[in-house]
């Protein structure tokens, strides 16, 4: 394998050029525009939106349409759709193709949530490669933008159709596939199967993005070495820690090991994230959504447990700011006395 090519950008999905090998995963309730712009600033070469309902788009639901807004700073961006019907997904994709600045249209074929699977969407597609072929052929005919997929290895160990799924997507006109190395039954437990990802990559003529158990720059390099994927997708490791995106990009490009962020850096970014969420969703909802992010920013920091509990009770911007700043002050005092 040409390691210089494997670790360094740029690379392309269709006609969309991507500057490095680090991709931010789509995460429901997380990768809204506030988080995505931060992630882009921290070095993600390609960013995915949280999944957007095809029905919401077709019904012109105002909340759904807001989710399709693309900030110029976050491009290139893949806008992810979900749904259980090929015709409706094609119509929604046609709308995204014509009316948004998304660079790539992605279809979620891996979400394990029961409420999504109940409508034949997400991971439910994994049970039928034939349906997936028809889906991608239908959507491909409806749009001009690059079309991609995010899949898992299968529904469960008895239904691991990942090779058939990847072949169906490619033959029907898909331009790239992101592969999470777990089944739907595994959810997010157990170890991701990188060997299966390598099998897909070995047979594919389109770019393959590897996803699962990339928690450090070293993990990212090892995934590329072991699977040959074109890029690595980072999800949960970036929660409260977008620095991981920059650290991975620098390590892959230059072999440079950058330090973890300091507590002060984490608090400063959390405060910025808070204000961006409020700008996006208003104070009440923005603060509510910031509660989980505050817990992620504080995770692993010494003496942070009490402040994480306080953050979960915050109702206003001022209460959340006071909690975060109180931790910073306490941490600084403790550090100076150490």
TrEMBL record:
Recorded coiled-coil stretches: none
Binding site for FMN: 26-28, 80, 150, 180, 235-236
Protein's UniProt keywords contain NADP: yes
DUS-like FMN-binding domain: residues covered: 24-324
Reported cofactor(s): FMN
Top-rank taxon: Bacteria
Record keywords: Flavoprotein, FMN, NADP, Nucleotide-binding, Oxidoreductase, RNA-binding, tRNA processing, tRNA-binding
EC nos: 1.3.1.-
Protein name per Swiss-Prot or TrEMBL: tRNA-dihydrouridine synthase
Lineage per the UniProt record: Bacteria, Bacillati, Bacillota, Bacilli, Bacillales
